[in-house]
Amino acid sequence: MGYETLIVERAGRVGWLINNRPDQLNAMNSQMREEFAEAWLELDQDPEVRVIVHTGEGRAFQTGVDVVELATDGQGMERYRESVENFDLHFTSWHQKVRKPVITAVNGICCGGGFHWVADADIVIAASDAQFFDPHVSVGQVVALEAIALLKKMPAETVMRMALMGAHERMGPQRAYELGMISEIVDPPERLRERAGEIAEAIARNSPSAMAATKKALWDALEHGLTDASKTGAFHMTGIWGHPDQVEGPAAFAEKREPRWTPLDPI
């Protein structure tokens, strides 16, 4: 489908999802919210795509909900009340149950609702000029979903500090790296997409089915205690036993060649 607020591209085995409202610092209006739901599924269901990279155009990755739209459209946050109260959300890869690895590449400013895509990605890298902050309380809004999701990556006090400082304190990429929010800083910033593509290409060499099961096992583990998580992980591990990739992987290794993986089963 065509998109007005996003760019969806393919480069070989890598799918690119690019926020494309640069003049609004990629703030998410209602149209972008709807387009995200479709774009994630389009790339996840494309048999040629093995890894998805998410980044932004311009000087910001994402700055949360479009506050101008909230202030001028006559509906404000009421537009989203039912979906939020029912936790019927569809704008991140986690919401859409994307099976493929997702890399978030943070360019420039990431604030407020932008943390949804930091928390819900599998791997996060950031340019050396990235800035992180959460201005919700500074514009009369509650910090909740994004920060709760970040607790799986970062110390609780750090998340609380960011939530309560609001727009009055910014975190740089080095501190974000030290705290585990991101796994790599890319310098110079202009090389961010190139580096994201390199990581994606390396990941794309692996078994799609094994990665999908691995991703499911590890994300499910976040929902459980140690014993239940391990039992669930064992289920996902044995679920791929007998799959053609389990034969192909050792054969390719022994024959010193690139493996010929089986595409993911269609949904």
Report on the structure:
The chain is α/β, with parallel strands linked by helices. Helices cover 39% and strands 15% of the residues. The protein starts with 5 loop residues before the first strand and ends in a 13-residue tail after the last helix. The model has no long low-confidence stretch (mean pLDDT 93).
Write the layout of secondary structure elements.
Elements: E1 6-11, E2 14-19, H1 30-44, E3 51-56, E4 60-62, H2 67-72, H3 81-85, E5 102-106, E6 109-111, H4 115-119, E7 123-127, E8 131-133, H5 145-150, H6 156-165, H7 173-178, E9 184-186, H8 192-203, H9 208-221, H10 226-239, H11 244-254
Parallel strand pairs: 2-3, 3-5, 4-6, 5-7, 6-8, 7-9
Antiparallel strand pairs: 1-2
Helix pairs in contact: 9-10
Radius of gyration over all CA atoms, rounded: 19 Å
| First and last CA, distance | 19 Å
Mean pLDDT: 93
Largest sheet, in brief, is: 6 strands, mixed
| Unreliable segments of 5+ consecutive residues | none
Share in β-strands? 5-15%
Number of E-state strands: 9
Order of helices and strands: EEHEEHHEEHEEHHHEHHHH
Structural class: alpha/beta
Please give the count of helices.
Answer: 11
Strand arrangement in the largest pleated sheet: 1-2-3-5-7-9
Shape type = globular
Provide the helix percentage.
25-40%
